[in-house]
Write a structure and sequence with these properties.
By secondary structure, this protein is of the alpha/beta class. The chain is built from 14 helices and seven strands. The longest helix has 25 residues. The structure holds guanosine-5'-triphosphate and magnesium ion.
């Protein structure tokens, strides 16, 4: 494959080239990994910068509905929007792709939008790495906004926040006065909380939920990357297109402030460091899978099991041999 030509086609805005490149990135084959790394490097100099928005929320909260409405609003303003997803749970992936095809029907037909569902059947680390590289490709392809969706399971919110400029948490109106079991760690990474379904009978509950969360956000430690009034909680209705432009105004205000204050670039720099260290960690782990290393592992594991050497001494010896 001519990687340099593929990179040029992506930068020229060729959507088929972008789709092909993401398929390459999603491949687990070692030669494809090498090509994907070359491709990432080839598009690095595009000089384009999208707003990367991470979006998380539990199943049924309205993520797909929100992305469809919000995405159409943005394309209506002349912006180009890419939608990617981090969904590590294999059980859901088939269903969620199907569901999203119907729920994002209009957006997926919009020529200014590009939607790519999460690759199926993979662990979080693998999906994260592929999504992160795909985000960079979408950015190079000239998309103004890249939405990265994740369903709130386990570590996936943190992973998405680590590849986003701003992180948006979507919530549903709560019945009682409890804070819906949103973990403190998630609250701490949220830049904007949107209480969705603030329409019809649910509106009063949505407003109560919003003010509960606004109160909870005020109790959190002040972060240097926030201007006055952030993080913020708002009510929206994805189904009725209500308050979506207000939500976008808040996102833009936050991004503008962070750009002006240097936090935007600093966050991306910190993310690049994090992902580099993660690549190294993954690369070292992958070395354990090499046949000669596996054989060595088996050899030492056998000795350890027989009591011929302690686990610590065996590990020391094997690591020293691997360094040779
Ligand atoms: N009343 C109301 N219903 C909504 C709103 N947004 C979404 N819904 C409904 O909530 C249900 C779930 O919406 P989805 O957009 O599929 O939710 P999701 O978060 O993508 O769900 P998963 O993909 O399963 O994680 C659907 O029946 C939507 O019509 C809203 O703003 N108001
Ligand atoms: Mg969905």
């Amino acid at each position: 494959m001519d990687i340099e030509a593929l990179g040029r086609d992506i930068i020229a805005g060729d959507r088929r080239a972008l789709a092909r490149a993401i398929t390459l990135i999603e491949s687990g084959r070692a030669d494809h990994r090498t090509e994907a790394a070359r491709l990432s490097e080839a598009v690095r100099g595009s000089g384009r910068e999208a707003i990367r928005i991470g979006l998380s929320g539990t199943p049924g909260v309205g993520k797909s509905t929100f992305i469809e409405s919000f995405g159409l609003m943005l394309t209506g303003q002349g912006l180009r929007v890419a939608v990617l997803a981090v969904d590590p749970s294999s059980a859901r992936s088939g269903g969620s792709i199907l569901g999203d095809k119907t729920r994002m029907e209009r957006l997926s037909r919009d020529p200014a939008a590009f939607i790519r569902p999460s690759p199926a059947r993979s662990h979080l680390g693998g999906v994260a790495r592929r999504t992160r590289e795909s985000v960079a490709l979408c950015e190079a392809a000239g998309f103004d906004v890249v939405l990265i969706e994740t369903v709130g399971v386990g570590q996936s919110e943190t992973v998405v926040a680590d590849m986003s400029d701003i992180f948006v948490l979507l919530l549903a109106p709560a019945g009682g006065d409890e804070l819906q079991g949103v973990k403190r760690g998630i609250m701490e990474i949220a830049d904007l909380i949107l209480v969705n379904k603030a329409d019809g009978d649910l509106k009063p509950a949505a407003q109560r939920t919003r003010s509960d969360y606004a109160g909870a956000l005020r109790l959190l430690r002040k972060r240097p990357q926030d201007p006055e009034g952030f993080p913020k909680a708002l009510c929206v209705s994805a189904l009725h297109d209500d308050k979506l432009s207000e939500a976008w105004d808040e996102m833009r205000a936050l991004v503008d402030w962070r750009r002006a204050e240097g936090h935007f670039a600093a966050r991306r720099a910190a993310q690049a460091r994090t992902w580099f260290l993660e690549e190294i960690r993954q690369g070292l782990l992958a070395r354990l899978d090499r046949p000669e290393t596996r054989a060595m592992l088996e050899h030492y594991a056998g000795s350890v099991a027989e009591g011929g050497i302690t686990p610590a001494a065996a590990a020391e010896e094997m690591l020293a041999r691997m360094d040779e």
